[in-house]
């Protein structure tokens, strides 16, 4: 692909590549020279410039350092990564990655922190088929889930409490093998020393305080943040007057839901094909 064939408006990835090429050529640099400055091959530089390869955060930061562009490419990378995310979600991810305690409730699908890559890929692929996001954005959603999960493997690890509506484990996503691996992942999650897994069964009825997904985060300084979302947008709440009632309701949900042992038994029954 030559420079005339690259359309910066075709995708955020192409826009990044076009800006990189423009910054390089303005300095009279070859791809080989820029690659030497950044620690990448000229082939890698070419793939990013033509939009064939999605840049990493490391690549964006090294671009800024080599080209003297401040944080221009890093900011463009963040915009690109968050382009397909709900409003408020990028800020939530930052808080989640630093939280000492995470309490989440999910409806309909396994939450991102507990998803297998295959399960996440099926969900992202479905969004592509509906025309909601592009294939590139789908790939980034899956990559972001992996990054979120990796950020939780730290010392000391956060306490993670997960209450899943029964629909999360009964709704089939992908082929049977994908769902079986996902259910196995839930059992592994429950076996960790810093986690608690519960399933809010359908027969809880009105005793279930939430109808939509909710997450309550406790920071290392014990401050609280809550995140909730609808189909259109997400909302990060920091006002204690609103967060505390959510935390209280979450504790009530945990008290009403079956124990972890009973919940894991239910998941294992599903894996065996038992209703």
TrEMBL record:
InterPro entries: Cro/C1-type_HTH, DUF5753, Lambda_DNA-bd_dom_sf
Recorded superkingdom: Bacteria
Composition skew (Basic and acidic residues), residue ranges: 23-35
PROSITE patterns documented for this protein: HTH_CROC1
Domain HTH cro/C1-type: 20-73
Coiled coil ranges: none
Annotated region described as Disordered, given as residue ranges: 1-36
One GO molecular-function entry: DNA binding
A matching Pfam family: DUF5753
Protein name from the UniProt record: Helix-turn-helix domain-containing protein
Classification lineage: Bacteria, Bacillati, Actinomycetota, Actinomycetes, Kitasatosporales
